[in-house]
Amino acid sequence: MSSVEGLARSRLAFRRARFNVLRMRPSSCRAPLLASFLCIAFLAVPPRSPDVQAQAPPPPPVGVETVAEGDFAPTSTAIGATEPRRTSVVAASIEGYVIEYPAREGATVKRGDILAHLRDDILAQEIRGAESALLEVKEWHSKARKDLERRRQLIGKDAVTQKELDAAETEERALAHRIPRAEAELEVLKLNFEKKKVKAPFDGQVVRELTEVGQWVAAGGQVVRLVDLSSVFVRFNVPERQIRFVKEGQSVLVTVDAARPEPYEGKVVSIAGEGDASARTFPVRVEIPNDGALRAGMTSSSRFAQGTPRKALLVSKDALILEGGRSFVFVVTDGAAQKKPVETGAEQDGKVEVLRGLAAGEKVVVRGNERLQPGAPVRLVGPPPAEANRH
Question: What confidence score (pLDDT) does residue 245 get?
Fold first, then answer.
């Protein structure tokens, strides 16, 4: 018979006995008899079997690593964003009515490609008129020059007067001066004719359309926004205590998760001479080649050197627990996790430099430390630290 069934039968027998006693005895004798039956009923309840008693939970599993000294090249990480190598809001240099607009958002263009074509038929007629006028002036000048030569030959024979010769010379000079003026007027018309075609100033991509066919564009009116993404710049701010480690031409690893998981290698191209006085930071700009995956406005993470290489105690970043602005780790000693405060330095490849609080050879918890309590027993999982290090 199970303990549950025994308990139920004992309670039923107790109720029946209590009822009989209360019915048969006077009230003065009921209390002692009731107490006796309570004791008997309590002793009749069988004890719980061992398998239903509460079991203590097993120690939580944790992963550990051994604190060790190693070569450490301190680095720092800064968050920034990608920027185009060049950006231009291309504008019309002459007014006109848009008759063609081949530029489309997202289109890739080469330098000299037409982005917008303004009406130019009237200007074409003016050019033809100016060309005719120039030819006419040149013919007049040729005739005046021949006439002048003839008069010079006749002056010695008294066939012409000096006054007639002077008039011929004046006319020839005046026509000679009109030729370059007519040529300049024609050249201006041709330049304005070319300006009716708004062209791309460099290779790039159209990122915004700013006009449309049928729209009147004034001189200086915006046509498209064009960006050059042959390479991109990454701009980020470096704290003033670290800016002395950053040099122009220095290599910087830039991670752009939206483009690819592997980092890009860039070069520092500029360091601002003026910083943000309130934030105590200085803008730094890095140029990285574009493999076609980079676009303007992507979030980037740049890692740069923060000092000279040295020996240091290193521990995984996963071992650190931040509480109230302080760093702690759990150290496993005699099967129990002990909480220790630590002072950390710079970071490198997921490792953190330990300045105080740990010694080489100590085992720190790197997995399963989120809910540990100081002094709690733990169970190590995975290969022993010594074997892990050998692998």
Answer: 85
Q: Are residues 97 and 205 in the same domain?
A: yes
Q: Is residue 57 situated within a structural domain? A: no
Instruction: Report the alpha-carbon distance of residue 81 to residue 30 in Å, rounded.
Output: 89
Per the document, the length of the chain is 391
The pLDDT score that the predictor gives to residue 20 is 54
The 10s digit of each residue's pLDDT in 18-63 is 545 445 444 444 445 445 544 444 444 455 544 544 566 788 888 9
- In which domain, by residue range, is 151 found? 120-195
- The pTM (predicted TM-score) of the whole model is 0.59
Give the span between the Cα atoms of 4 and 52, in whole angstroms.
11
Lookup result for tokens 């449309």: 212
Domains of the chain: total: 4
For the chain, give the longest Cα–Cα distance: 181
List the structure tokens of 38: 């309570």
Per-residue HEC secondary structure of 45-94 comes to CCCCCHHHCCCCCCCCEEEEEECEEEEECCEEEEEEEEEEEEEEEEECCC
My answer on whether 109 and 208 are in the same domain is yes
Residues 278 and 300 in one domain: yes
**Residue 341 corresponds to which tokens in the numbers above?**
């405060």
Cβ pair 81, 234 in contact under 8 A: yes
Q: Which domain-ending residue is among 306, 340, 374? A: 306
Whether the predicted pLDDT of 373 surpasses 80: yes
